[in-house]
Design goal:
By secondary structure, the chain is an all-alpha fold. The chain has 5 helices and no strands.
């Protein structure tokens, strides 16, 4: 890996983090995060869809290994957030919101994997 590739990957990660932050601000205005962590679900599903598309394109050599690194590790790594998902799940459990916690876990897994698979199939 070259220094330039590392810097571009870092930049893509920063861009992904800014996108995630802006989406979370938008969701904070329209929903009550104490009821359900919609912003985290959306960023995880969007990032998973992008990841699936990149992988599908890589199957046909439409995406170089370098671009794959930039998009998957950088951009998708910056957009998606397992740590916030984990923290918000524990916060829901601590507030005795077991149903919302279970729904969030199931939705992130099913919709995230589904979005990734759909993106992969569409791009393949």
């Amino acid at each position: 890996m070259t220094v330039a590739l590392a810097l571009v990957t870092i930049g893509a990660g920063g861009l992904g983090a800014v996108i995630r932050y802006l989406l979370s601000l938008g969701f904070a205005r329209v929903s009550d995060a104490e009821h359900f962590p919609w912003a985290v679900l959306v960023v995880n599903v969007v990032g998973s869809a992008i990841g699936g598309i990149v992988l599908g394109m890589a199957q046909h050599d439409a995406v170089s290994a370098d671009l794959q690194l930039i998009l998957l590790t950088g951009l998708c790594g910056g957009i998606t957030t397992f740590s916030t998902f984990s923290v918000e799940t524990i916060q829901l459990v601590a507030a005795d919101r077991w149903r919302a916690a279970a729904l969030s876990v199931a939705a992130n897994l099913v919709l995230g994997l589904g979005a990734c698979a759909l993106g992969y199939l569409l791009a393949s």
